Fold this sequence. Notes:
Chain A is mainly β. Chain A contains no helices and eleven strands. The mean pLDDT of chain A is 93. Chain B is mainly beta. Helix content of chain B is 0%, strand content 48%. Chain A binds chain B through residues 4, 32, 34, 36, 41-46, 49, 89, 91, 95, 98-108, and chain B through 4, 6, 33, 40-45, 48, 55-56, 91, 93, 95, 97, 103-110.
Amino acid sequence: GENVEQHxxxxxxxxxxxxxxxxxxxxxxxxxxxxxxxxxxKGPQLIIDIRSNVGEKKDQRIAVTLNKTAKHFSLHITxxxxxxxxxxxxxxxxxxxxxxxxxxxxxxxxxxxxx
Amino acid sequence: DTGxxxxxxxxxxxxxxxxxxxCDPISEHNRLYWYRQTLGQGPEFLTYFQNEAxxxxxxxxxxRFSAERPKGSFSTLEIQRTEQGDSAMYxxxxxxxxxxxxxxxxxxxxxxxxxx
Lengths: 115, 116
């Protein structure tokens, strides 16, 4: 089955700095890669996703890149703010028309943004 | 769009008791997923429904676990004869297979189960 590795497990930055979280996956058939933000006591919140037919996607301060050849994808957060502090999960899944899109999650990165 | 809701938010039970959790998905979503999350880990897939049909179950879903989605709307997850190892956050997510934002899963707040 799919295996997703996520690094680092903890990331501490100063407000205004950039943060980068990296993930690798094992199944070359995976074609959908969402990123989730989870705050304490809450469920994961989808923040951005990328499909295998594109290499990069950006939404304001957040961007995701995908390298299908190397089977890795990354989350980039620019101009970090204290409210960005949370646990971030990457995931990989596969599915075509009618496919299940059941994600395999990484173990998470605890991002701490110091004011 | 009121989001995915789960009830209860917290449940403390004694080993051997049965518990049932409820999930109400986003109204137009036809898929509903259940996950389990333990401390320091990402969510692990348990099972999912498309409308009222249960299409896939994980090996994690032992015989003590059962899930239903009788009318294709809300779902329940029951754990019989709870064990301490069942202590975890149980998360529900929903998605749609048509229209825009296909297959994007939106999670509820979770039910935290503690088995004493």
